[in-house]
Design goal:
Length: 506
């Protein structure tokens, strides 16, 4: 199971552990992906054929939530992504009846609906979450054996029927935002990195090992700003370990290893990881890393770029068969645009610049609505899925950088539109909300949680810092006071570079 991770800047206990497992995942290590896609070409770009049996899953929407409240039934949420499913391979008639009669059921793809996945924070996927009729979760189960699903759901519904008052009271007590218990300090994040560092194999934490690009880029920036060579040594030793491991394959990088020695890769290649690794290799700067950057750039162009449409595909699953997600995601498009622009400068590669400009045209044409809002899934058929702050901030950064490189006014105009949307629709007292409107009855929340991939507000801080908006950058940096937990690498790097407060507590 893939797990994302982070640390708390507000808790001394959590600060000792850089990698607290907490979000999003895929199927177990060593499992072969189901042979469900008939193929002649080794790479298939098509919708995934789900391995779960025939289940009457609904889609997320107001009607589903209204039904749950009208019939006073709990909601069963199945978080499952292509390659990360399989809890219902052969559902029995009894299981089908149990779900149909006692739950309002919905399946959510966390890649296409990250707003719902991040709100529910399941701890991994495939996951089953049980929620009250108003959408508040009271039970979670991640990657459980399929044979245990039916008895688990029977016990769950029985508990809901017999102990509903206790469940509702518990949900009420644990809900809501928590303020940080301590101030955020860049130096404290660095000390947490030192504490979690694996001096034997490189990287941080365990037993699984992730690419940790946010942390590694922070360490390089910290070394430059503070002349702290131990920070650079940790970063480069970890990067060398990744390059020497099976995580680095055919010019690209798998998501993580299930073992601390990097030798058990989970064979998923995500565009966000490739963009972050390209930045990291360029920033590391030595000949070996620049050579790897050129290889990665070639992989991105050859395997992820759809030439006819001008967009980067989002992810690929490698097994005996390969499957490439055909979806056009704004955050991944913007991240790879930025990485290609950086590569064009550092490597003096005009090809990378041309890729970025073509992808920028696609971003403008398909991802930004009339109000300046950036959709998460681009294209006319996906207008109902509004973008998250991550989508807005990454798009704003990419468009600003495209404007700087090309000098073309259309990119600058788009930046202004996206920035106005962020400020008018997502703006809060000290930080930006995760999205413009609630998800059904689910409230909006601040996008502060910093995982292996940057939090939305950390990216927004980087955008306003790059743009030279000192006032708004300082306000966003000050918003770290309300971080409930897990602010680490990308936050620290953004504050270090643009917050102007790295030497003092916020």
């Amino acid at each position: 199971m893939i797990l994302l991770h982070g640390i708390s800047a507000g808790s001394s206990a959590m600060m000792k552990l850089l990698l607290a497992l907490f979000l999003a995942g895929c199927a177990g290590v060593g499992e072969e992906l189901p042979e469900t896609v008939a193929m002649e070409d080794p790479t298939v770009v098509a919708e995934w054929i789900w391995t779960d049996g025939q289940m009457a899953w609904g889609g997320w929407g107001e009607q589903l939530l209204a039904l749950a409240q009208r019939e006073d039934r709990p909601i069963l949420i199945y978080l499952a992504a292509p390659g990360c499913e399989g809890l219902f391979p052969a559902p029995t008639s009894g299981l089908n009846q149990l779900i149909a009669e006692n739950f309002v059921s919905v399946r959510v793809d966390p890649f296409k609906r990250p707003d719902i996945a991040r709100y529910y924070d399941s701890g991994g996927w495939p996951a089953l979450l049980a929620a009250l009729p108003d959408g508040r979760v009271f039970a979670r189960a991640v990657d459980i054996p399929p044979a245990n699903v039916e008895p688990y759901l029977r016990r769950l519904y029985l508990a809901y029927e017999e102990k509903r008052g206790i469940i509702v009271d518990k949900v009420r007590r644990v809900g809501g935002e928590r303020e940080a218990q301590a101030s955020f300090e860049v130096a404290a994040v660095y000390r947490a990195c030192v504490a979690a560092y694996d001096s034997t194999y490189g990287g941080f934490g365990g037993p699984s090992k992730f690419l940790e690009t946010s942390v590694l880029r922070f360490l390089l920036a910290y070394a430059d700003e503070h002349d702290e060579q131990s920070a650079r040594r940790m970063a480069l030793y970890s990067l060398d370990a990744i390059l020497d491991s099976p995580l680095y394959a055919k010019g690209a990088f798998y998501a993580y290893s299930a073992t601390p020695d990097w030798n058990a890769p989970v064979r998923e290649i995500d565009a966000l990881d490739q963009a972050a690794m390209l930045h990291l290799l360029l920033e590391a700067g030595q000949p070996r890393y620049l050579g790897a950057a050129r290889e990665l750039l070639g992989f991105i162009e050859g395997e992820f770029f759809a030439v006819d449409e001008g967009f980067f595909r989002g992810r690929r699953i490698d097994a005996e068969q390969q499957w490439t997600d055909p979806t056009f995601y704004a955050d991944r498009q913007a991240a790879l645009i930025r990485a290609c622009l950086a590569a064009s400068t550092v490597l003096e590669d005009d090809r990378a610049k041309r890729l970025a400009l073509q992808a920028g045209d696609a971003l403008l044409a398909h991802c930004i609505d009339d109000n300046g809002g950036v959709r998460h899934v681009c294209g006319a058929q996906h207008t109902e899925v509004s973008g998250l702050l991550v989508d807005q901030a990454l798009a704003a950064l990419a468009l600003w950088e495209l404007g700087q490189v090309s000098g073309e006014v259309r990119f600058a105009d788009a930046v202004d539109r996206v920035a106005r949307y962020m400020e008018d629709r997502l703006g809060g007292p000290v930080a930006f909300y995760n999205r413009a409107e609630p998800v059904g009855p689910l409230p909006r929340f601040f996008s502060h949680r910093d995982t292996g991939r940057p939090a939305g507000n950390a990216l927004a801080l980087s955008f306003y810092g790059r743009r030279g908006d000192i006032e708004r950058s300082s306000t966003l940096a000050g918003g770290l006071r309300i971080v409930p937990d897990r602010a680490y690498g990308s936050w620290a790097r953004a504050v270090l570079r643009y917050g102007g407060m790295e030497k003092s507590s916020l």
